[in-house]
């Protein structure tokens, strides 16, 4: 019988643990803004390219419509976004930041720089890790899982 691998030596475990640590790290930063991390991502995406369909937003953020729609409903209830059904196709919904959402997006735009400063890692190291993660994500999306 082969010995089971050490979970902490697995790439997937370390990505999971880093993601979990990031979520905990962001929480006290986002809490005063009244945002969850996924809501923050929506706010950033819309502040870069406002007024787009739920499908396009989900594609950019890699979120399924089943996840994104309730998230957008909550953001609408908070007064951060408006959702409008398209007249030519009522199945399609356009999402836009409200004035409150735009004001919050301006405040939230400073967060990435703040995070980078807190991490105390050289910018080129952060850029390198980000590039590796992009490549890994792309490979995983294109590779069928093996059977064991």
Task: Describe this protein with a few key phrases.
Arc Repressor Mutant, subunit A, 3-stranded antiparallel sheet, 8% strand, 3 strands, mainly alpha, globular, 148 residues, 62% helix
Description:
With 148 residues, the protein is mainly α. The chain has a domain at 25-109: Orthogonal Bundle (Arc Repressor Mutant, subunit A), CATH 1.10.10.10. The chain has seven helices and three strands; from the N terminus they run H-H-E-H-H-E-E-H-H-H. The radius of gyration is 18 Å and the shape is globular. It is found in: Cytoplasm. One of its GO terms (biological process) is response to stress.
Shape: globular
> What is the number of E strands?
3
Strand order of the largest sheet: 1-3-2
Biggest beta sheet summary:
3 strands, antiparallel
- By DSSP (H or I, 4+ residues per run), the number of helices equals 7
Helix and strand topology:
Layout: H1 11-30, H2 37-48, E1 52-53, H3 54-61, H4 65-77, E2 81-85, E3 93-97, H5 99-108, H6 111-119, H7 123-142
In short:
With about 150 residues, this protein is mainly alpha-helical. The protein contains seven helices and three strands.
